[in-house]
UniProtKB/TrEMBL annotation:
Lineage: Bacteria, Pseudomonadati, Pseudomonadota, Alphaproteobacteria, Hyphomicrobiales
Molecular function in Gene Ontology: hydrolase activity, acting on carbon-nitrogen (but not peptide) bonds; metal ion binding
Stretches that traverse the bilayer: none
Top-level lineage group: Bacteria
GO BP field: carbohydrate metabolic process
GO cellular component, one term: membrane
Organism: Bradyrhizobium sediminis
CDD domains: CE4_NodB_like_6s_7s (cd10917)
Protein name: Chitooligosaccharide deacetylase
Keyword Signal on entry: yes
Signal sequence coordinates: 1-18
Domain NodB homology: 57-242
Protein family (similarity comment): Belongs to the polysaccharide deacetylase family.
């Protein structure tokens, strides 16, 4: 059952700047939110009634479907140039093929979330098969990060492929204290379009929403090409990037 005290589940950082940046005039990372999955099991208005308690002009940047060397490296370079941190929801098979890139994502201060082993649509999978797909993806990312596979994630953040899910899968992840992330707005970058068109689509949606969890895909070349201009737009229009981390006190347990 969903907890009603959403705000109480989020620890707000008090520092005005969450990360120092050696280059003045950059966008930077404004603050850090620590999320406790035990109290905040799911967020994102595209899928759920509630989302993160963001102030006006605050955004959370999330990237799905990586890592993919040619484009993820460009995304990381753009984020580093502006001293911005994001959350990457990784596909396990790609993580197992590119472990050094997974470690680079983490080393540069980004948060690693999970996105299944093969990006299978779990809405149409048997419960045991869905759990196996989730666990295999988690294990691959954990092995890439730490050298040993584990079905208990060191960062308990998960996003369903296609945002397709079943009540049983949601309940299972909640029982395991793994937070499920939807999104509040997205760039629709699964549709081919020029980077300039994608930038306009995304900024128009952000103007309408005013804030939110943004979904992008780092394997998309058009997204990698668009990202520097989008980060510049955020800076010039006084948006503030909020970075997500798990609550350090979270005790994770795999429930059979």
């Amino acid at each position: 059952m969903l907890r009603i005290a959403l705000v109480a589940s989020i620890a707000w950082a008090t520092a005005a700047q969450a990360a120092d940046c050696p280059r003045p005039g950059t966008l930077g990372t404004w603050r850090v939110l620590t999320v406790d999955p035990a109290a905040t099991p799911r967020v994102g208005l595209k899928s759920f009634p509630q989302t993160l308690p963001l102030a006006d002009h605050e955004v959370v940047l999330t990237f799905d479907d990586g890592p993919w060397p040619a484009t993820t490296s460009r995304v990381l370079a753009a984020l580093a140039q502006e001293c911005v941190r994001a959350t990457f929801f990784l596909i396990g098979r790609s993580a197992s093929e590119h472990p050094a890139l997974v470690r680079r994502i983490a080393a540069e201060g980004h948060t690693i979330g999970h996105h299944t082993w093969t990006h299978r649509n779990l809405k149409y999978a048997k419960p045991a098969d869905a759990e196996a797909e989730i666990d295999k993806g988690i294990a691959a990312a954990e092995k890439a990060l730490h050298g040993a596979a584990a079905s208990t994630p060191s960062t308990p953040f998960f996003r369903f492929p296609y945002f397709e899910m079943t009540p049983q899968a949601l309940e299972k992840l909640e029982s395991r204290r793994i937070a499920v992330f939807g999104a509040d707005l997205w760039a629709s970058d699964w549709n081919p379009m020029p980077p300039q068109a994608q930038l306009k689509l995304l900024t128009d949606r952000l103007k309408a929403a005013g804030k939110g969890i943004i979904l992008l895909h780092d394997p998309k070349a058009q997204t990698a090409a668009m990202l520097p201009a989008f980060l510049r737009y955020l800076r010039e229009n006084r948006y503030r990037v909020v970075h997500l981390e798990p609550a350090r006190s979270v005790g994770l347990a795999r429930v059979p």
